[in-house]
Every structure is written in structure tokens, then in C-alpha cells.
Amino acid sequence: MKLRSFGKTNSSEEIQLYTLANKNGVEIGIINYGGVIASLKVPDRSGKFEDVVLGYNELEGWLRDACHFGGIIGRYANRIALGEFTLNDKAYKLARNNGENHLHGGHKGFDRVVWTARDVSRRDSDALQLEYVSAAGEEGYPGALTTQVIYSLTDENELKIQYAATTDDDTVINFTNHSYFNLTGDTEKNVLAHEVMLNAAHFTPADSTLIPTGEIRDVAGTPFDFRRSIRIGARIDDADPQLKYGEGYDHNWVLNLNSERMLRLAARVREPITGRSLEVHTSEPGIQFYTGNQLDGSVRGKKGKYSRRSGFCLETQHFPDSPNHPEFPSTVLKPGGRFESTTVFKFSVE
């Protein structure tokens, strides 16, 4: 593993860039500000390596970032309706930082804090452990929460992300990684020609503010049916109310389960020109498929400005607004318990 300085935060904290590499030449750059995946270089079918994640060349970009490029998202990934939930008969109020709703942990989510980093590489893989202790009451959440995230890169071109957390009081949690992918390696191109399969027969429809209604809806006969691989752009502009609410895809799919907490295939993406492909396996019950609908050309990234749909996200997760939906899988963590979750992004060529 390589290590170099990546700059300083506004409070003069030194940030480091850790580069994980494998025997195939794949390299992943991670900074301990936000646990951000800053770069991810994988080959195409001709052996040409390109960076396939959106982001910035300098730390300053992430310090002012509003898109959550590549970051660890917590304490609660996705949305909580009206920034409110009740736990043990006590009401908690959170920041309303997405219209009237709470999004991605609030004003200072886990992608905006400095994590303590430690090299935990083994003979068969480079690995980086990140740890952050969130004080009780931070962003309105109960309980002091200790979170560890381990990034590891295998010689099978797998990026494995392992999450673990403990608390000293009852609380709610939901973690994900918010990388935007463009498998062409050219962010001047949109991702509409990428072919996507989602291993899900149902999704959670949302209201106009993208809060789940509570319904678990069959994807059959809808633009949300990705059980067979199809281009992202094939139906993204269909006259469907759900697509109108999200301005494209920005929804949670309910993954087909084999057994609880076991890794299973969640998604497969293929980029036909370069031959790059990506498989996502996870122990999480859901996945948020987001098609970069809010990128509007105002954000200048590594190779220029990011325009609408120049990247897509596959955010493995529990469901949005679960603290307000007892019918959804629980996101409550109690003292003495330990939350554990794993997601694997596997890259290959066809």
C-alpha cells in the first residue's frame, strides 16, 4: 500500500491518500476524509486502464462537495421523512437538508469527517481500516456510535467493503458507499448505454419527495424491471410518475434474498464499448440505483464538468426511512449488539 499527503482540511487536519493495488495493476485511491474512494483504475478489454469513479483531483473539491462522491454515508444513508423518527417512545429531530427531509446523515455526515486510518493489509490483499466515533447527539442521533469500515482489494479485482458498528445506547444506522461509476472512463459521456441487471423483483415506490410510501411493488410491467439486463437509457424517460419524482432512477430495490446476512448477487453492469463489467454482491436487503439526475454541469471534477447522468450509483443499504416504517427491515442497533455488513464490487472485462 502506498501513502502520501493529500492536503489539509479547513481546520488544518492532515489528510492522507492511501493507494491499494493488486497484482493485475488495479489501483484504488482512498482518503481518510470521508472514507472517500477518490479513484478506481481498472482495465478495459484491450488492457487500457481508466479511472471509473467520479470525483476531484484535489482535497478542496471534496471539502465543498455536495454530491457525496465516493464517500462513506452515515449515520443514516438515504432519506428520513421530515427529519424525524421515534425510538423507544422518544422523538428525535434531525437536520432537514433535502427539502423537508433528512438525507445522508445531515449537514455533517460520515463523508464529511476525518477517519482514523490503519493499514491492515494481508499477504493476499491490500486493506485499509477506517474508524470514526460519532458522539451521542451528533446530527441529532442518539448514542455514541463507533464505526469501522475496511476496504480491501483482492487479486480477483474485488473491492470488498466491510462495515461494523457498536453503540452505547439504542440508535438507528444505515451505511453505504456513494461512489458514482462510469465504466467508459470518460465522464464526458453519459451512462445511458450501460447495461444493468438488478436482482430484485420488487422496489419501494416513493412520494414526490422520494420518501417510500411503505408499499413493496412488483417490478413486472414497469420501467423498474431490471431482472434482465437492459440499457439504463431504455426507459428512463418513460411517462411514469415514479421516474418523474426522481427525474430518472433514484429508488430502492428490494433484493431477492437467499438467506439473511449472506452475500448474494445484487447487480451486474456492462459497458459494451470498453467491455468493462461490474458485479455487486451484498449482505444488505436493498440497493439504491441512482442515475446522476442532479448533476447539472455546475460541478467541475477530475476531467471537466459533470453533466446530467454522467455517473450512476449502486448504494447497497437498508431501506430509506426505515425508522418510520416498522414493516421494513429494522435499522435499530442496541448496546451489546454489533452491526456487520459486507458489499463486494467485482470488476472484469468481456
Give a structural overview:
By secondary structure, the chain is mainly beta. The protein has a single domain, classed as Beta-galactosidase, Chain A, domain 5. It is 3% helix and 41% strand. The chain has helices at 59-63, 241-246, and strands at 2-8, 14-21, 27-31, 37-43, 49-51, 72-73, 79-80, 84-87, 90-93, 102-103, 116-119, 125-134, 145-154, 158-167, 171-172, 176-177, 195-198, 200-204, 217-218, 230-231, 250-255, 264-270, 276-282, 286-290, 299-301, 304-306, 313-317, 332-333, 339-349. A nine-stranded antiparallel beta sheet has the order 11-12-13-14-29-23-22-17-20, with no helix packed on it. The protein is globular, with a radius of gyration of 19 Å. The two termini are 28 Å apart.
Q: What's the CATH class, please?
A: Mainly Beta
- Overall geometry: globular
Radius of gyration: 19 Å
Largest sheet, order of strands side by side?
11-12-13-14-29-23-22-17-20
Mean pLDDT, all residues: 97
Question: What is the count of structural domains?
Answer: 1
- How many extended strands? 29
Q: So, CATH architecture?
A: Distorted Sandwich
What percentage of amino acids are in beta strands? 35-45%
As residue ranges, the low-confidence spans are none
Question: How far is the N terminus from the C terminus?
Answer: 28 Å
Q: What's the number of helices?
A: 2
Relative helix content: under 10%
Outline the biggest β-sheet.
9 strands, antiparallel
Q: State the secondary-structure class.
A: mainly beta
Q: Examine the coordinates and then state which fold CATH places here, giving the name of the CATH topology.
A: Beta-galactosidase, Chain A, domain 5
